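Reply to dn_fold:

You asked what the input looked like. This is it:
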Amino acid sequence: MSWPIKILTVVGARPQFIKAAVVSRALAAWEGGAAFREEIVHTGQHYDQAMSDVFFDRLGLAEPTVRLDLGGGTHGQMTGKMLEALEEVMLDRRPDLVLVYGDTNSTLAGALAAAKLQMPVAHVEAGLRSFNRAMPEEINRILTDHLAAWLFCPTRAAKHNLENEGLTAGVHLVGDVMFDAALIFADAARRESRIIEFLGLREKAYFLVTVHRQENTDDPDRLKCLLAAFERLAAAGETLVWPLHPRLKGHLADYYAPKGLKLIEPLPYLDMVRMEMGAKVILTDSGGVQKEAYFHKTPCVTLREETEWVETVAAGWNRLAGCEPGRIRKAAAEATPGGVIDEYGDGRSGPAIARLLAIEAGQA
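and this is what came back:
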């Protein structure tokens, strides 16, 4: 490949916008902007304005060159529509490589479309494993890793997972781009956000709740267990604030409105960061929020039976509680600060990825 290296970046969901903002900054700065020419495709997997467009406005991420608006539908429907549309975009744009992030349907569709066109794939956040094949995200990340030419791992455990699957070529331990983002945006969130005051909350006196994974939202019994746990915490005097993911709005209407919880709309990124920083405890099923909890030194309870971020549990910052109300209440009561995690890099994962792509893609 000759410079500038043409990159097509595929994003579609909240965590990907944050990660892409970090890496895109680094790509734009590398060699004074001469090394890369990046175009962004937004699949539309998250189409709520507060979950999507605001990230481009606030994080400094360039506006997408192409918007596909393909959110909604089953996993198969969504992935199939994205695959067809992304193949057309790639044939038109002819990038030197396709850059994908994380473990969403957008990730897999981008990687699969590129691989079938014999375009090399770079996967940021490679190697993560929950070892739970019932999770759509686990299928997405495994397949994407086995399609990728460059695998950028956030932790030693992720690199070890790839080695166990026979993947060693193109594997790089670069640290976590989400840690870069935490360092970049934490001061801005503290300085600019007034969400805690707006909601009438006190610092370190509320629980922040996030729920979005299919295993929790689409299983009526499991969701009811979570709601019961939250209600018991509220009845015991805790203040619970729950920004509702779009996936959940319809489901809650199907069951009942939780009692004693403060339900709010999805938050802009800086407000969400400020809420994470100010919370007493975070209750979540999100992988990204588990890490952000540690970055902002807030204890976390994970509403799943396993996590990809095993080091957060080992260090004592995170507790696995599943969906059983008694376990969740116990974990919340025991949630305290843990030890230091020496895993996520030095806050320069974005530049490390840019350097490696400049070297290795430039030699391809």
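The chain has 16 helices and 13 strands.
Hope that clears it up.
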